[in-house]
């Protein structure tokens, strides 16, 4: 299946001209539109209104070349170089410089006090064993101390802000980057497994960036991408860097913390752009900004130039979209710009996307039938939002996860995909072929060709169902809550639980199961709303409300309800509730307020 939806396919000149890497695209734009703005970063740390740093294509190309030259003098082609740089233009320069040098980039983050980040950073660095670490002069001492404390000393450190602007030495030696060469390792968020480095080639990232360019209706030299997502995250890297670089249009970056502290900034930056705008965020962000922006702040906000708003990285909730578009309707924001995008790091980021020109299709399905593996339309039940069809010609099929047999439309199973963007495997993992080269068969035993020159299909680990060719996401296989032989999707439980009592903070609920003496037990964890103090909270009352609501809506008995303080529910780097971490901490007895 394809994602053209009857429209003419659009590609940037960098693709039509045969560029097979992002550094080659930068060089092209430096030659053809060198004085135009390539990337800008709005820094809210010192000035709440934002201080802008920007680079033209010519400046970006020169800095990338300087970093590439520095890397080439210190590491051989194919060596790993970790990027431990804070959000901003230096991150873009560092990442592209490593690629131009012929090295393998590992997009990460500087050491910071956010819960769980330093442990994950140490684990990733130990796994990929970089020869170089790029940071900035402001964080060089902290990075060096971190490496020494974690017994990771060995990589040579470089401050990209110094290297890129030193103006000394010869430029980088030209490297013939091929589509099959490894460009970077994209470490997974760890929402359902230990972080693993997905091997992404230059061909993979160029293919997915081109798919995003087409799907989000970008225009070379005209569009601006506004992105607050971290550049070390797969969606942030593609939306905030790869697609604008390949497409030759401006990337306007923000710091994720600036968004969290004041989400209004996201839409204010979008409103301040003159031309067409594209952006993307996880579903929670749409509800978050709608709840935080006052009528006074919305007054005069211009959003009618938004072309596409991508929504992915977690389940897309119809109620959230209702709230968001109702809130900003008077600002010119039309629901038809919303693009439900399904993907995962194993496919760079994008697998499917809802079509342009209309709001994502929604269906309401009978909850019991859906849990039993069949999609049956109903007046009341679970409402799912369509993730459209395969982006840029990708193939999407639904398979029985136990047998690898393709399932017909209307049957729930594991989402399998194939396309030029699918990665090559997990770094250093001998069993990668089980995920990246799975064999799909039809009911009669005939092997289904994955096409694209691939040896097999990508198993996503996600549950979905095809209806009239559109993909609907049902959840993750490992996240299914199975109690007394009945399947329950955690997002259904979570939505019911968050509506059960005003003391529960919206978009902070996680539902999972743990083993008990007689079978699986369902547990709900949530954060208390900020207007409730710990002393004000009547835990027994909230727990009773949650148990009653879930029992009535889903016929499921909740074993335990845990209420944590604001910001204490484990999340991934992109803001998703980390159910696996919740489950692990609950089993350890450490899932409690203030832990």
UniProtKB/TrEMBL annotation:
Name under which the protein is recorded: Long-chain-fatty-acid--CoA ligase
UniProt keyword annotation of Ligase present: yes
Record carries keyword Nucleotide-binding: no
Family to which the UniProt record says this protein belongs: Belongs to the ATP-dependent AMP-binding enzyme family.
Enzyme class per UniProt: ligase
Domain named AMP-binding enzyme C-terminal: residues: 479-593
InterPro entries, alphabetized: AMP-bd_C, AMP-bd_C_sf, AMP-dep_synth/lig_dom, ANL_N_sf, FAAL/FAAC
Lineage: Bacteria, Bacillati, Actinomycetota, Actinomycetes, Pseudonocardiales
Domain of life from the UniProt record: Bacteria
Residue span, AMP-dependent synthetase/ligase domain: 27-427
Enzyme Commission code: 6.2.1.3
Keywords for the protein's UniProt record, in alphabetical order: Fatty acid metabolism, Ligase, Lipid metabolism
